[in-house]
């Protein structure tokens, strides 16, 4: 499955659609402005909230929390010793971890579970400006979760660049 994401140009508070490879709208990322912490909602085409994403308020390192139905699903934060590449760890509520690594600000990175590739985020195969693709490799993977992970990693990397 491949999804196309139009890059946010203005930051938090912007809403943007994620389309499938046929150009059909699939998910809406709804940025919530005027909040104490950075907050997003991933919605379906009917406006139903699938996933809530928010910044953890009291954490030593920038951390984003992903929730589904009010229940924690995952926590994402930068790995401590990642000097050469952007490297993030996603701790799933069930106790497993995903690894996000690559050139996140360039939209060239991968999401892996235990060394197995789950998704590739890339601009390489697209000719549309300010657009990147999320290619879900495993058919049994949760597309909404992987898109939420990509949104979080990009947001954290951009915040880190600003600081």
TrEMBL record:
Gene3D superfamilies per UniProt: LURP1-related
InterPro entries with a match to the protein in the record: LOR, LOR_sf, Tubby-like_C
Pfam families hit by this protein: LOR (PF04525)
Family indicated by similarity: Belongs to the LOR family.
The name this protein goes by in its record: LURP-one-related family protein
Organism: Streptomyces griseoaurantiacus M045
Upper taxonomic lineage: Bacteria, Bacillati, Actinomycetota, Actinomycetes, Kitasatosporales
